[in-house]
Design goal:
By secondary structure, the chain is an alpha/beta fold. It contains 23 helices and 17 strands. The strands form six sheets. Strands 5-8-11-2-12 form a five-stranded parallel sheet, with helices on one face. A three-stranded antiparallel sheet has the order 1-4-3. The chain has a three-stranded antiparallel sheet with strand order 15-17-16.
């Protein structure tokens, strides 16, 4: 931590005062020239959002990040802290981070006038220069801007007309810092109006006080497009004062979505070493989110957060961990039957349209898993024919025929040895794997065997039933739904 110094020592050090926007621009330019990453941990935005952010920051704009839930809007705002100088000098004791060279509060001005070059200077780390406020209905002008403090007035024996009786709100206290207002449309219109002068002219008005306080703040707002019609909107004059509006988006490929999930999911190193997750299982998890974003049962305007797959991965690993505890095994592999464990992660992360409400959240979750299974299955194997000509053999005829005289129970609680002994007893699957998936790892090949069986149950070529721990597959009866 930097030690306290005097104003003279600060001047002698050659320190040059910069506004927060000049500070961000200087550090941004240095990173660009050094070819260093600008925003760490932001995947998938390299060619879309990040170039726009660079331009907005170089232009010195306040920024509105507009996008659906789970698109890293808050992460973007928080990562901007890395573009600030590590330490910033302030007049010691100032409530609003007064610059020693351009003080704006009466306290700082009076202290500098009294002590001159001997004015004490303290340092603020960049981690303390980030302020965040979630727009909720109870937010008022006093919270954001400030109010008269009658206790301070009585203690100091000052009239209410004296500036020293003011209690500063969050925005003045964020002077020379980054201030984020999340879900801006949720902020009441009259509160949004109070921001006009702060963004444009630098005036702060508190209970009749009109103070010329040119606050030096980098504002970042976040908003969800759905909020414009659902709960509120950004009033036009405020929107006009925000320099750049940048749209965020969901990952566009399965591989990119996987990287995000692996980066964000909270998985212990112990679980990572004890639980094998086939690549196809990781892809299938992401396919569920992609299926949800195009599903007729899910409200596309509300979006499907990237947190769905993060939470689902954590649930999937927890299911495998529970199996390890119950069986006493040292290692286990994620199976397709384990995907029943992610249903709670799906139902809590999607908004349903009327048709989805009619189906029910759990049933929609199962349908989404169905859709994801079929999308992945058809990337590897031929489609299951809807109609079959008598006497004409298809890729899956031998598998279906095997179940005429057999059935299989796949138990969630089985050890890997028990589970794959049961699965590998279906010999006709080997020929399909050899023809279409021979280049995959053993774990992925085993996962493919489950994919084939589930696809055949979805197409009602086989029948599938379940209880709390056992999944039974046999010849087609009445044709039950996957996870039914």
């Amino acid at each position: 931590m930097k030690k306290e110094i005097t104003l003279k020592e600060l001047k002698d050090s050659g320190y040059i005062h910069k506004t927060i926007k000049e500070e961000i621009q200087k550090n941004l330019i240095a990173r660009i020239k050094a070819k260093e990453p600008i925003f760490k941990g932001l995947l998938g935005y390299e060619d879309t959002v990040i170039p726009q952010l660079k331009k907005a920051l170089l232009a010195g704009h306040h920024i509105n990040l507009l996008g659906l839930r789970g698109q890293a809007k808050t992460r973007i705002a928080r990562s901007m802290v890395d573009l600030l100088d590590e330490y910033m000098p302030v007049v010691k004791g100032s409530e609003i981070n007064d610059s020693p060279f351009q003080p704006i509060s009466k306290y700082a001005k009076d202290l500098i006038a009294e002590k001159g070059d001997e004015t004490p200077i303290s340092w603020v780390h960049r981690s303390e220069r980030f302020y965040e406020k979630l727009a909720t209905p109870d937010v008022n002008v006093s919270d954001l801007i400030g109010d008269i403090d009658p206790i301070k007035a009585a203690t100091l024996k000052l009239p209410y007309s004296d500036e020293r009786v003011l209690h500063y709100g969050m925005i003045p206290r964020a002077n020379r810092s980054i201030f984020v207002i999340n879900e801006l449309p949720d902020l009441q219109a009259r509160i949004q109006v109070s921001l006009f002068n702060i963004l444009q002219e630098g005036d702060v008005q508190i209970r009749g006080f009109q103070l010329r306080m040119p606050l030096d703040i980098q504002f970042v707002f976040t908003a969800n497009p759905e909020d414009y019609t659902n709960r509120g909107s950004i009033v036009t004059p405020l929107k006009d004062r925000i320099g750049s509006q940048i749209f965020t988006h969901y990952p566009k490929t399965i591989q990119l979505a996987r990287q995000i999930t692996e980066q964000e999911a909270n998985i212990s190193s112990q679980d990572q070493s004890a639980i094998i997750v086939p690549n196809l299982a990781k892809d299938l998890l992401e396919e569920v989110a992609f299926a949800a974003r195009t599903s007729e049962y899910v409200d596309a305007k509300s979006g499907v957060s990237a947190r769905l797959t993060i939470s689902a991965m954590e649930n999937l690993m927890a299911a495998a961990q529970l199996r390890l505890i119950e069986t006493g095994a040292e290692t286990t592999t994620i199976r397709l039957v384990d995907f029943i464990s992610i249903i709670p992660s799906i139902t809590g992360k999607i908004e349903l349209v009327y048709e989805g409400e009619q189906e029910g959240a759990d049933e929609v979750a199962k349908i989404l898993i169905d859709d994801a299974v079929m999308a992945q299955f058809e990337n590897i194997f031929p489609r299951v024919p809807k109609l079959e000509k008598e006497g004409v053999k298809t890729t899956y005829t031998d598998v279906v025929n095997w179940f005429e005289d057999n059935f299989i129970e796949l138990n969630y609680t089985d050890t890997d040895e028990e589970f794959y002994t049961s699965l590998n007893s279906i010999k006709p699957l080997d020929a399909i794997i050899k023809e279409y998936a021979s280049n995959l790892s053993i774990e992925d090949q085993n996962f493919c065997k489950e994919l084939i069986l589930w696809a055949l149950t979805i197409h009602r070529k086989l029948d599938r039933s379940e209880n709390s721990s056992t999944f039974t597959i046999d010849s087609a009866g009445f044709g039950k739904h996957f996870f039914s």
